[in-house]
Design goal:
Mean pLDDT: 93
Low-confidence stretches: none
Number of strands: 14
Number of helices: 14
Strand content: 5-15%
Number of domains: 1
Strand order of the largest sheet: 1-2-10-7-3
CATH superfamily: Cytochrome P450
Order of helices and strands: HEEHEHHEHHHHHEEHHHEEEEHHEEEE
Radius of gyration: 21 Å
Helix content: 40-55%
CATH class: Mainly Alpha
Oligomer: single chain
Largest sheet: 5 strands, mixed
């Protein structure tokens, strides 16, 4: 393997961020091996084009909050072989970043999220009531991919019949190993989005896509290049992220009846439970590109170097959280980097929290006791984002509320 001249031998660790040993579906716990004493806290791996990895909470938050040294213009490893439209605002650094972020702000504001909460609750109840009498469901396909995706489709006013197409393409972009297939799926998502922009410019509505279609930056409508990237980001985030988180939440509750009972007996803990589970089960491997040569915690970083930031390690760092693998709904202020940090902190975090809270509230009211179906396998996949892909659950219909 080729190691750059500025990387000392004692900083090299052979680890593939996309392919490592995981026991069952405990993806986050598997990542914790990087916090062992034989692993440098900041190391270089030759996999995926060669890149640095920061492993401790302090460095994770420093990198995410320092856009001057760590740019978001490249956000995955390896770097794409061809230039693509940047996913604005995610791949734009300040000061230009805010111009594009503001275009999305109103649709994800506290007021907007509050107005969406009631429809989300109604849908959650409807979904649960449909399969509750059966005594079983496949959680991902029957719930997790319905609730958040339906809410998102409402925000952007897209037809329900397009949901399958879009979620399938998002799955390829986020988790497919073949760069060619990822690129093809990206182009299809972009093409779909641009067709909708043409329609909304001709006949705008009150949805987020219409707002973007007629929005102006520096006095001009967004050009096709900028729109392509922005719409791709919007569709990927809305169709995948919360559904992925929800799967890990449901798996935890299926395996931990005492925690279920704790929330049933004291629903006031549910908001804190959401934060604690977000801390324990992050799903994203973020990446940043070094903007200039400089020394960082004893490591010489060079312009163009890539740095991977595994958000799972922020919540599992024992220097920040006592017994980090343990889920404690009474943990004091579990502030975490699950939604990123700095200027690029996830704009949809409030909506995500709301949907996750509603899931817990309405599920435990109706199906308080459930487990993973015996003899089945919980399946997961991970690349830039980890997700539970199959979670068969069972319960006794006579014991539901």
């Amino acid at each position: 393997m080729t190691i750059p001249a500025h990387v000392p031998a004692d900083r090299v660790f052979d680890f593939n961020i996309y392919d490592f040993a995981v026991d069952g579906a405990e993806y986050q716990a598997g990542m914790q091996q990087l916090l062992q004493g034989n692993v440098p806290e900041i190391f270089w791996t030759p996999h995926n084009g060669g890149h640095w990895v920061v492993t401790r909470s302090q460095q994770i938050n420093e990198v995410l909050n320092d856009h001057e040294h760590f740019s978001s213009r490249q956000i995955v490893v390896p770097k794409p072989p061809i230039e693509r439209p940047p996913l604005k605002p995610l791949q734009v650094d300040p000061p230009q970043h805010l111009k594009y972020r503001n275009l999305l702000a109103a649709a994800l504001s506290p007021k907007a999220v509050a107005s969406l909460a009631e429809s989300a609750r109604v849908l959650a109840i409807q979904l649960i009531e449909e399969f509750k009498p059966r005594g079983e469901c496949e959680f991902v396909s029957e719930f997790a991919q319905h609730l958040p995706v339906a809410i998102f489709m409402n925000i952007v006013d897209l037809p329900e019949q397009d949901r399958g197409l879009l979620t399938g393409l998002a799955e390829i972009v986020v988790r497919e190993e073949d760069e060619r297939l990822r690129g093809d799926a990206l182009m299809k998502i972009a093409g779909y989005g641009m067709q909708k922009i043409i329609e909304r410019r001709a006949k705008p509505g009150n949805d987020l896509l219409s707002s973007i279609a007629i929005a102006k930056v520096d006095g001009e409508l967004l050009n096709d290049y900028d729109l392509t990237g922005m719409l791709t980001l919007l569709l990927l985030a809305g169709l995948d992220t919360v559904a992925s988180m929800m799967g890990f939440f449901a798996r935890f509750f299926a395996l931990n009846p005492a925690h279920r009972r704790q929330l049933i007996e004291d629903p006031s803990l549910i908001n804190n439970a959401v934060e604690e589970l977000l801390r324990r089960y992050p799903i994203a491997n973020l990446a940043r590109e070094v903007t200039q040569d400089f020394e960082y915690h004893g490591v010489c970083l060079k312009t163009g170097d890539m740095v991977v930031v595994p958000t799972a390690l922020d919540g599992l760092d024992e220097r920040r959280f006592e017994v980090p693998l343990t889920v404690d709904f009474n943990r004091d202020k579990p502030i975490h980097a699950t939604f990123g940090g700095g200027v690029h902190r996830c704009m949809g975090s409030m909506l995500a929290r709301t949907e996750l809270r509603l899931f817990i509230e309405e599920w435990l009211k109706r199906i308080p006791d459930f487990e993973i179906k015996p003899g089945t396998e919980v399946k997961f996949a991970a690349r830039a984002v980890a997700t539970i892909t199959s979670l068969p659950l069972v319960w006794s219909p006579t014991n539901t509320l």
